[in-house]
Amino acid sequence: MTIQCEESGERAGWNIPSVEESGISAISRGLNVDPIWARILLGRGFDWDSLDSSFLHPSPPDSDNVGEIGLARETLLDALSNQEQIAIYADLDVDGITSAVMCSRFLTRRKHPHRVLLVQREEGHGLNRERILALPDEGVRLLIVADLGVSNLSLLSEAKKKGLSSIVVDHHLMQEPWPEEMAIVHPQGRSHLTAVGCLYVLLRSFVHESEEREMAFLSGLAVLSDRAPILSENRYFVQALLDENVLEGFPGVRALLRKRIHRKVMVNDYSFWVIPSLNAPGRMSDPLPAFRLLMARTESEAERYSSQVVEMNRRRREAEWTIYEEVRRQWDGTPVLFAPDWAPGVMGRIAHRLCEEFNQSVFVGTLTASGGVRGSLRLRGQITLPDILKSLEGLPISGGGHPKAGGLGFPLEILEKVRVLLSGILREQSASTLEDCDETLEIDAFLPAYYRSASFWEGFGKLTPFGEGFPEPLFGIRNVRVEKMESANGRLVLCHFRWNHGTERAAFRYSRNLPRPGDRLDLVMTPELVGKGDRIERHFTIRRHRHTG
Fold first, then answer.
1. Helix axis angle, 299-330 relative to 347-358, nearest 10°?
2. I need a labelling partner for 236 at 20 to 30 A (CA). Which of 60, 131, 247, 279 fits?
3. pTM of the model
């Protein structure tokens, strides 16, 4: 497979994968999909073997997908054998909450004494020193830390001297070598597992099939929440979300889905309804309602906790959009934004939306309850979080996360210094990114004339879900004429246009350099299946455009 940059004729200025035509029919027949989707899969480098292992019949992860796990297994087995009290300390987002639920369900089934501690929003990120060091005096002998911990090595070492062993189950960037005598379960570059996916590997050898499927379901929620690559072992997890038998074991999730979905459940229903609802309690205050919803066993519990998280999600959306609209009205393009009264729990969402809409790196911060600055970073281009942290060395800054998304915390007194340094770094990177850009449009294929047919959309549905590692398909359309631009709900703009095969409309999700009626454009679009109550709607979203005259 090669990438062609067409320089002449009707395809000038388009980057399109070149594929062997003979392979299209074989993939099309084998998957029973329209040839356009076989072309796209081949263009992305798949062959039949890789399709089977990473897409069609993925296998669950095992110890090969994480670093050395022997000490963690031995430590857990000793605690189980000796009936030692275990504490689970988990982060407040979906990856952390599902880890806490997986652990608690595992221990509850075995009638093993344990307690669950969840990060509180007002505490900030990381382990709370006082809570951790108090555990040995309360009879706890093993601490399982989920979706955090790699930046708390010194605290865990101190706790070990007091008699508290620990197992860190995390997937965030490791900023220092991990000592051999401290148990950890981490991908360490071998996979793209989330924290709860790593926990799945740790617990898998202890459980039976029915329990394994519940663990896969919980891991699938975190894959979607963390936008992890949806291939291979992570795709195995996501497939569990569509298993109705497994869903029976989570009456809280069923109750949540019933409040909005009156048809067959799609993966997007989890991405755009269940995941935000589970994240909302932690973003607004206390993640406990989300934990209780996933732990619910009775219909009354399910209804109570699903109503709680729905209400908290409503409040989260209001806070998020109020802040986002305020930022959009006033934003002059500076990459570092700060306001002392913004809700800390939605900084990541604001940074994500700005990064997506304006295609640039940003940091969005606010004042925490303790008086420090805490915010979220979203990055574009080649720069990564370790690059940022290295550039800010010498300053009292804490940070962690993923290469392209993370958090930074620092004292209010150095805000202006950080603003100047970080703005310079991000502006330089953005300028470099813009210099590398040209008017060439990269697509998977041109949109076929029969795109309204059932075979086109059925094939699209078979390939979902899309995400990191397997992005949404990009289709090109040449020389459309814009007929009308229409604002929809204040958050996107619908473009009505005419092209060779009739009229169509698609949504812009960015607001810079929008076209006007009468303009001639080339478009890059992606299709979407959107669940609306008892029906599924078909839409297109515009990712890029360029004027053609």
1. 50
2. 279
3. 0.87
